[in-house]
Design goal:
By secondary structure, this protein is α/β, with parallel strands linked by helices. About 25% of the residues lie in helices and about 25% in strands.
């Protein structure tokens, strides 16, 4: 994986092979960031990266100057890798927490401009993410929730659903409070 834009543009990051992850492809990541770029100034956002895995998305936001990036992963090895890599890249804006994402959403007090979630494709709790984000009021005004998911998952009936984008096998559903 590589960082596509910003202060660490072109930096390649190699994660240990034993991490239980499926990093977002560079093509899909570049595409979703192009969309987000139309709505946000990245140097003025607070980001929550749920199921952060390798930290791929967190590094991209940090490289683009995000004010803060909170990376959440329930795997201790993933969380340790993100902490190590963020330190090596001098990404002081990244904070990492080794906690299950739904538990975090139930207790979170901070609000975010962008919440990005990329759970394992075989996960059974996709619908719980938007429910907790909106019931706990975790998005700032005009904020987005972006969920990466398999094609079998559909969110179009959710009242806060905004749009879906498909890039190969990668599906992104975007939710918004005020659109």
């Amino acid at each position: 994986m590589r960082i596509i834009c910003g202060s660490r543009r072109g930096k390649k990051i190699t994660a240990p092979e034993n991490l239980p992850v499926r990093p977002t492809t560079d093509f899909a990541k570049e595409s979703i960031f192009n969309i987000l770029n139309n709505y946000f100034n990245f140097d003025a956002v607070h980001v929550l990266d749920l199921c952060a895995g390798t930290g791929n998305i967190s590094y991209e936001f940090a490289s683009r100057g995000a004010l803060s990036v909170t990376a959440i992963d329930n795997n201790a090895h993933c969380a340790a890798f993100i902490k190590k890599t963020a330190k090596e890249l001098h990404f002081d804006a990244i904070s990492v927490f080794n906690v299950e994402c739904l538990a975090f959403l139930k207790t979170a007090k901070m609000k975010f401009n962008i919440i990005f979630a990329d759970p394992p494709y075989d996960w059974d709790n996709y619908a719980t993410i938007p429910e907790l984000v909106f019931s706990n009021n975790l998005l700032l005004p005009d904020g987005f929730l972006v969920i990466e998911h398999p094609k079998e998952i559909a969110f179009k009936e959710h009242p806060k659903f905004y749009q879906q984008r498909v890039y190969g096998k990668v599906n992104f559903s975007i939710f918004a409070e005020n659109l």
